[in-house]
Amino acid sequence: MLLELMNGIAYIGIAVLMFPILRQQNVSLALGYFGFRIIEFAMQIASDISPLSLLTLSERFVSEGAPEASSFKNLGALLLAERHSAFLMVMLTFGLGALLFYYLLYQSKLMPRFISIWGLIAATVVLADLILNMLGLNPGQFLGVPMLLNELFLGAWLIVKGFNQPANASGFAKTDMDEG
Description:
Order of helices and strands: HHHHHH
Largest sheet: none
Structural class: mainly alpha
Number of domains: 1
Number of helices: 6
Distance between the termini: 49 Å
Strand content: under 5%
Number of strands: 0
Shape: elongated
Helix content: over 70%
């Protein structure tokens, strides 16, 4: 749970760091991306509360001598359903946010276009997977692999190469080194 919470905080951190860059392309879409990341974090928290509640419920079940009461089973099923629904909302907000993010990266030309196109395709696959899951179909975990690989590649690219220089640098702050 702690790692998932830290992951959720990273959602917000990435959005905060990217907002000044993305707003140069489109303020409304950049705000939309930021908003999706906040909602994604909130849904991640909701998804993470359910297992903690299940632990408390199971302790109560044991302390009462493992009664045959169906209320424990019903409450457990409700908590599992809540986690599943919150997870679906995490995937929805992640997919929609990713579409905005990669579209803005595509527009900005701060990354090679193939990374942005790959991200757009992967985000679409994530949303298709979500729709299939909502329809009761389970295509498997492999549909998330393109997004996973894209995010790993994007992170490595940013560490090694960073952003491309913008074609029009007037919207970006100049540093002291730029003037010398």
